[in-house]
Amino acid sequence: MPQAGSTPASTPTHCPYCALQCAMSVSPGPAAGGPAGGSPDRGAGVEPRQFPTNGGALCRKGWSSAQLLGAADRIVEPLLRGPDGVLRPAAWDEVLDLVAAKVRALRTAHGADAVAVFGAGGLTNEKAYQLGKFARLALGTRLIDYNGRFCMSSAAAAGNRSFGLDRGLPFPLTDLGGAGAILLLGSNVAETMPPFVRHLQGARDAGGLIVVDPRRSATARLSEDGAGLHLQPTPGTDLPLLLGLAHVVLAEGLADEDYLARRTVGRDAVARSVAPWWPERVQATTGVPAALLRTAARRLAETARAARAGGAPVYVLTGRGVEQHVNGTDTTTAAINLALLLGLPGTRAGGFGTLTGQGNGQGGREHGQKSDQLPGYRKITDPAHRAHVAAAWGVDESLIPGPGVPATELLHSLGLPGGPRMLFVHGSNVAVSAPDAGRVIEGLRRLDFLVVADFFLSETAAEADVVLPVLQWAEEEGTMTNLEGRILRRRRAVTPPPGARSELWIMAELARRLDAPGRFPTDAREVFEELREASRGGLADYSGIDYAALDAGEAVYWPCPADASPAAGTDEHVAVDSPTLHGTPRLFLDGFAHPDGKARMVAVRFGAAAEQLNLPGTLTLLTGRLLEHYQSGAQTRRVPELNAAQPELRAELHPATALAHGIADGDLVLLSNGRGRVVARAALDAGMRTDCVFLPFHFAGDASANLLTSSATDPVSSMPGFKNASVSLSPLPVGALPDAGPRSAAEAAARPLVEAAR
Ligand SMILES: Nc1nc2c(c(=O)[nH]1)N[C@H]1C(S)=C(S)[C@@H](COP(=O)(O)OP(=O)(O)OC[C@H]3O[C@@H](n4cnc5c(=O)[nH]c(N)nc54)[C@H](O)[C@@H]3O)O[C@H]1N2
Ligand SMILES: Nc1nc2c(c(=O)[nH]1)N[C@H]1C(S)=C(S)[C@@H](COP(=O)(O)OP(=O)(O)OC[C@H]3O[C@@H](n4cnc5c(=O)[nH]c(N)nc54)[C@H](O)[C@@H]3O)O[C@H]1N2
Ligand code: SF4
Ligand SMILES: [Mo]
Question: Which residues form the 4Fe-4S Mo/W bis-MGD-type domain (predicted)?
Answer without folding.
Answer: 8-73
